[in-house]
Amino acid sequence: MSPFLFTNTGFLIALAALAIPILIHLLLRRKKQRLRFSTIRFFARQDERSAHRRKLRNLLLLATRLLLLALLVLAFARPYLPRAASADPPSPQRQWVLVLDRSASMQAGDRWAQAMTAAREALGSLEVNDRVALIDAAVPARVLSPPVPPAQARALLDNLTPGFGVSDLGSALREAVKFLPTDGSARATLQVISDLQQNACETLSSAPVPQGVETRVALIGEPYLPNLTVSGLELESARAARVELRSYSDQPAVGIPVELKVNGLAAVTQFVDLPARTTTEVLLPLPALDSGWHTLTARISSGDRFGLDDARHQVVHVPEPVPALCVEKGSLAVPHEAETYFLLSALNPRMGSTNGARLSPFQPEQIEPSGLARRLAQAPPPRLIFLPAQRHFPPELGPELVRFVEQGGGLALFVGESFSPNRYLAELGPLLPAVPGTIEGEPNRPETHWRMRGVDPQPPLFQAFRRPDSGDLSLPVFKRRFSLEPAAHADVPARFSDGAPFVVTTEFGQGRVAFINTTPDTTWTDWPKRRTFVPWIHGLAHWLLAGEAAAAATAETMRVVGAEVELLLGAGGFHEPLLIGEPDGTEARADADAAGRFTMTLDRPGVYSVRHETGEELRRVAVHLPSTASDLRALTPGEFQQRLVRIHPSPESGWMSGWLDPVRDERHFWRLLLMAGAVLLLIELLLANRTFA
Amino acid sequence: MTLDPKLIATLDDLSLVARTVVEGFLSGLHRSPFLGYSSEFAAYRPYMQGDNLRHVDWKVWGRTDTLYVKQFQDDTNLYGQLLLDTSASMDFGHPLKFDYATRLAAALAYLMVKQHDAPGLTLFGDGALQVLPARGHREQLDHLLFALSRATARGRTRIGPDLGGVVETFSRRGIAVVISDLLSADDALFELLKLLHYQRQEGILFQVLAPEELDFDFHGDFLIEDSESGETVPVHAGAFRNEYRRRMADYCDLVSRTCERYEIDHVRVRTDEPLDRALTAYLERRNAVA
Questions:
Q1: How far apart are the C-alpha atoms of A575 and A556, rounded to whole Å?
Q2: pLDDT in tens, A534-562
């Protein structure tokens, strides 16, 4: 029995057409005319030999034409050779590639257990001499094991756990195809075990699978699983956090409790309704936070089967307050009578409260002029000095203030009734941004009072007023002022309505100086009573600090599982042995380099903590799941198979493979037959040309 | 005047043919170049020792005191042997080589008689030998033309002892005219040429060939049958034409060289050509002999 089978058996009837060239050959065979000639002495032998050659060529021509016709008929009949009957000795070995989805979604319910069961069943069907490779469909795909015996692969499976990232089945298939034989040397099977999340299947078209490879898909879990997730947690302000909730469910959820914890302690709980497949934001109040690292955790009680994305963490760092000295030449006993009362209140609104929490990044301190020089030499060194008008300067105060500013300090100078231009020029002359002249203004004539007009909010001093409706700077009234002649190197960020300078600033050494042409209290202006005063004082303080760390609580950048981050620990981490506290409570040791850089891989959601061995915490990092991990919509195995792109094996795999067409378990020969037919046609042309010349 | 071979071929009466050919041929000549001793005065020449005194013109001696001999037209002083090939190979071509050869022989016989020569005829073929000895009487031409009209071409070319015996009878020196295609399975006809040379005959070979033999302008596959032996050979004319022509040319060269060796004039005539060349060649040879 012939080992060949035919796709179009009906075409074999056309083999009867082989009789046509035979009949033509017989019927049209040239009958030799008999010619009586005078002598045959000139024809003897040599032409007889050529006649024999012609006869042989004619027979060859007939045979070529018969073969050509037979090849054409066979090519149309499309013969193929089943693999089992192929010429090569049949190989009992099967080549399997197991693509395993270890994404976070596989932790939903008992999906991982189902996946392991499916994988073991698949491996159980293999023989001892079969080979199986394991591919992790993570991003990027990883080869867990090259082709190994099934027993070895089973042992590897026992140690596998699901991860916390997402999967990319297209990338995994590209890796898998590398281990699949396409030359027919073994039966190739691609086994995919996955929950077939739609997100993971988006790149399937970029991973063509050879035609001959059998593809099996084991769907783990359900094609649809409702899921609610905390998709975002941001620090709205020092007093509030914004929680973003997303529904991946087709049904609305009502009364879902959202709990915000600060450092593990419940801060607030709110119940929210989540419409189907929408994102909802919730603003939750934050308690006052002391300086240091804090962890905010937003959690919902969704009741769905995928709990890994029900909580989200955010790390907040509150810096240490900046010491600021307010020089008070009056009595310190009655606070509200002090000249610096409004300054103190603006720099620390909670001054005098007893609950220990603070809201300001500044730590103001009242001090008499006589003690200022001494305080400048004490620790912690102040960073800011607010100096109302002084009639006299204690000895050494002037040079100390100049040195203070030269070394990077910030100095705010105010004027007033006791302001002595000559004294200031004598004591602080080098750092004064303007030369003061004489007092102007009549307090009892309101029509002569000034206001600020057209203040440009772009200078840093007025950055708090950049947003619309953030305050009207034209409301404060100024009764008196000094005439000022700004220095050539000085800036005038704000002026009165008549154009006279209101604020003149300059940089001196490494520090900054601001000359404010009014009093810090209500003697010459009503500004301290207005809402714009506090933000302006904060803006002034920030500018004087030259933008150094005087910020309020800031949220650290959140990271995604699987990221490798480089943390710059700064001076605190140079060459120091470090302890890395991981989300699961374990600790690991690491070292930062000479620049204080430290690299770590974040392989699970939660909060990582970097500490000194002494216990001082240097950094916290919040890690969350990729947002796409929460979308549990999945394909069915049929849809997955439909999205697969099938290709013929690459011609580079062998010179014959382009002509042999492996489809599933068959080898097709029609291309080879057509090629042979073309060669025969060429031979026929040559023979015919020589025969009939 | 040109004697159209097609016209000649339509004439069955050989005597008519011979007369038409020869008279037409001779009328184109200015004068007869063939002189001899006959009763008709032709010219004087000085007496030479050995001349017959009967031919001295004494009247001229009386007037000039010098001996002159009178010359007359010669009369039957040359034997012309016609040897005609009657083998089957002559029965080929359009017009037939044999017909052409027969007419040529008849014309030559007529011309010989006209020249007062004594023509003889030998038909040689497949052993059949018919000999008409050379005679000078008036009936000889009739006998010769009759023999030619009865002759047919058949059988092989065979040069046997009988033909050799005939040639040995050519004891008197004369002209032997061989009319043949010289195409046979072997080179036996060369033996005839050799015999004629040894018999001191002034030989002329008229090699009569048909245009088909020379040009071989056939197309297609043929089964060539030898007219003498009946053997056949398959031939593809188109593929073999050049080779055939080369072989034919080589053979004709061989014939020419053989004739040259035996001092025989070789005149190759095509059957589609007039007989003029043949008659001219004969007359030139006869003049040389005379």
A1: 23
A2: 889 988 998 898 755 444 567 777 788 88
Residues of B whose CB is below 8 A from A35: 218, 222-225
Cα–Cα distances in angstroms (integers) from residue B1 to residues A416, B24, B267, in the given order: 160, 7, 20
pLDDT in tens, B133-160: 888 777 888 889 888 888 888 888 877 7
- Of A340, A410, A397, A347, give the one whose Cα is nearest residue A370: A397
The residues in B 184-203 lying below 8 A from A, measured between CB atoms, are 184-185
How confident is residue A687, by pLDDT bands cut at 50, 70 and 90?
confident
pLDDT in tens, A249-293: 988 999 999 999 999 888 889 999 999 999 999 999 988 888 888
A40–B233 C-beta distance less than 8 A: yes
Q: Inspect the interface and report whether the beta carbons of A33 and B221 lie closer than 8 Å.
A: yes
CB A341 within 8 A of CB A303: no
Strand ranges across the sheet with A587-591: A559-560, A617-624, A606-612, A577-581, A587-591
pLDDT reading at B24 higher than 70:
no
* A644-657 b/e (C-beta count within 10 Å ≥ 16 → b): beeeebeeeeeeeb
State the smallest CA–CA distance between residue A36 and chain B in angstroms: 5
A42 with B247: Cβ contact below 8 A: yes
What the block records as the tokens of B200 is 């001191």
The pLDDT, as a whole number, for residue A86 is 46
**Beta-carbon separation of A39 and B233 below 8 A:** no
- Rg of chain A (C-alpha set): 44
Taking the C-alpha atoms of A522, A528, A529 and A531 in order, what is their torsion angle to the nearest 10 degrees? 160
